[in-house]
Structures are given as structure tokens and as C-alpha cells.
Specification:
The structure is a single chain. The protein is α/β, with parallel strands linked by helices. Helices cover 42% and strands 23% of the residues. The strands form three sheets. Strands 3, 4, 5, 6, 7, 10, 11 and 12 form an eight-stranded mixed beta sheet that branches. Strand 8, helix 8 and strand 9 form a beta-alpha-beta unit. Helix 6 crosses helix 10. The radius of gyration is 32 Å and the shape is rod-shaped. The C terminus is likely disordered.
Length: 313
């Protein structure tokens, strides 16, 4: 049956007033329009709801049965619609976001703090996971959206790039490359590298950059978090290519950090499941993360003043 809400509302008014003209005044329709709605409703139901005479309108047994139930049904429907419409202006709720480790540590804390300041009724819940697990949680609907490194395959995802940041070199201060103000990818040839493992969204991009510049290196260690890389470099176990955003705000006083040229960026991307619109509260959180990332545009890393004084090109 193709019964419309308008037809039901018109019938309810006719049943209450027992008059087409008065019913039309209640719902804002002309008498012919009211008559047409009733005729269409009866056609859909396959029975008569009203007996019409020149003087009055009487309900049939079917009409009385429908009228007795209809008020409660329409009230419940109106309440449901008002509740759903209220979601558009809701100011309280929980949004679940998954992000990969370097982003969880270096972007999301500021986003969560800003959310608490600007939208205290919105609880931003962070799930800190490796990239493959972030993407799986997005596709399964476990989280509202994810913050990841360029996922490559995007067919099942709606994506928005919010930040591009370069890779840089980190090495012990006594290493030969620490004497350079800028390091080329080809300068890494033959070096022992300590890199993020393949669970990281960055590793694929690092491997592509090394291959693209025909740089052959040995991978001394593969680890899951930049902090581990920094400790291994402190111990003299090699050098590393890391995303700039992985650098702590206070810098790395015991290591040298140099820009890698030509610049190779990794993209930070917001993702949610394709063909599944974000709820208004989730959209507000998405916008907040995007705006916070826009304030974090990352320049090429510059060496310290002391390093410049004794550097070579």
C-alpha cells in the first residue's frame, strides 16, 4: 500500500469534524482536495471509510476502527520525527574515533582538549590502533570515523585529506649526515635504517620513496612506535626516516633531525564508510579534527643554529 501521512492526517480531521470543509480548514486544504485525499486512501485500503451524504459524513465500521487507532499512531510518529530532527541540533553525545599511533600521540590530544573546551557536551572517545585495525573498525561501523595515513585503497571509504607533512631524517649527532643542513634521499644509500614496521601507514610510503630514488639500505630494526626508534638511535643502532609529526613538541635534544630532499609528504586523511552519512555530532567532531589539523601545516625541518654553524651542504 502507498498510504501517505497526508492522507492519514486528512482522514483524522474528517473523522473528528464529520465535515469536509471544516476538516480542510484544519489541515489547510480545500474541500475538493480533502475529498480527493479520502478517495485515494480508500482506494489504497480497498474499502470505504466514510459514507457521504449532502448533509453529513458518517464513518463506516472500517473508518471507526482506523480512527480509533490513528490518533495514537500519529502521535507516536510525530514524537519519533521530533526526536530524530532534534539530533541535528543535539549538543550532547559520544563520538568514537580511531586513529593510528603517531596521530593518536601527536594530533588527537589537542583535538580532544579543544572539543572539551568548545563542545563540552560531546565526548570524543579515542581508539588508538594500528592502521589496518583503524580501517577495519571504520568499515565495520565500530567507530564513527578514523584518522589515518593515506590508505591507498579508497573504494569503500569517504576520505578527506586534512594535512600533508614531510618525512625527515633522524640520526645521532655524530653521524656523517648530521653535518649536512639538508639530506638527499640518495645520501641514505648503504645505511642501516631503523624504521616503523609494516603495520604503520607510513612504512609503505617510506619504502616507495626509497625505491623511487633507487636507494638500497639495510633495515636493522622494525618497530611499532617512533619513541622506540628514538631510543634505538640513541644507542647507535642506525638512522631513521620518520614523519615530521612524530617529532615530540620539545624536539629531540639527543638526536639530529634534518629535512629529506626532494620533499616526500604523507597525507593525513579522515575516513568514514562510504554511503553512510555521519550523524550531526560525528560531523561536528570531524570538522573539529580537520580544523585543528589545518593549524598544524608542517614546514621542512630546519637544523639548529649550532648545527648550521658547522654544517656542510
Amino acid at each position: 500500500m502507498n498510504v501517505t501521512l497526508r492522507q492519514l492526517t486528512v482522514f483524522q480531521s474528517v473523522a473528528a469534524t464529520r465535515n469536509f470543509s471544516r476538516a480542510g480548514a484544519l489541515v489547510g486544504l480545500t474541500q475538493p482536495a480533502v475529498s480527493r485525499c479520502i478517495t485515494e486512501l480508500e482506494a489504497q485500503l480497498g474499502l470505504k471509510l466514510l459514507n457521504r451524504t449532502t448533509r453529513e459524513v458518517e464513518l463506516t465500521d472500517a473508518g471507526r476502527s482506523l480512527a480509533a487507532r490513528l490518533t495514537r499512531v500519529l502521535e507516536d510518529l510525530e514524537g519519533t520525527l521530533l526526536e530524530v530532527r532534534g539530533m541535528a541540533t543535539a549538543r550532547r553525545g559520544r563520538v568514537r574515533v580511531a586513529s593510528s599511533p603517531t596521530l593518536s600521540a601527536n594530533l588527537m590530544p589537542d583535538c580532544i582538549a579543544q572539543c572539551q573546551r568548545l563542545m563540552p557536551g560531546l565526548e570524543l572517545v579515542l581508539l588508538d590502533r594500528i592502521q589496518s585495525a583503524v580501517l577495519a573498525s571504520v568499515l565495520s561501523g565500530e567507530v564513527d570515523f578514523g584518522v589515518v595515513i593515506d590508505p591507498g585503497e579508497r573504494e569503500a571509504l569517504e576520505c578527506e585529506t586534512i594535512l600533508a607533512e614531510p618525512f625527515c631524517l633522524a640520526c645521532p649527532p655524530g653521524h656523517r649526515l648530521a653535518r649536512k643542513r639538508q639530506v638527499r634521499w640518495t645520501d641514505l644509500a648503504g645505511e642501516a635504517l631503523v624504521l616503523l614496521d609494516h603495520a604503520s601507514g607510513s612504512r609503505r610510503l617510506i619504502d616507495q620513496a626509497l625505491a623511487g630514488h633507487q636507494v638500497h639500505c639495510s633495515v636493522a630494526q622494525e618497530v611499532g612506535h617512533p619513541t622506540t626508534i628514538f631510543r634505538m638511535l640513541d644507542a647507535g643502532l642506525g638512522i631513521s626516516v620518520i614523519p615530521t609529526l612524530a617529532l615530540p613538541p620539545e624536539g629531540l635534544p639527543r638526536l639530529a633531525v634534518r629535512p629529506l630532499l626532494p620533499r616526500v609528504d604523507r597525507e593525513i586523511v579522515l575516513v568514514h564508510r562510504r554511503n553512510r552519512a555521519l550523524a550531526p555530532m560525528a560531523q561536528a567532531a570531524w570538522n573539529l579534527v580537520r580544523d585543528m589539523a589545518a593549524q598544524r601545516q608542517v614546514p621542512l625541518v630546519r637544523p639548529s643554529r649550532e648545527a648550521k654553524a658547522g654544517s656542510s651542504t
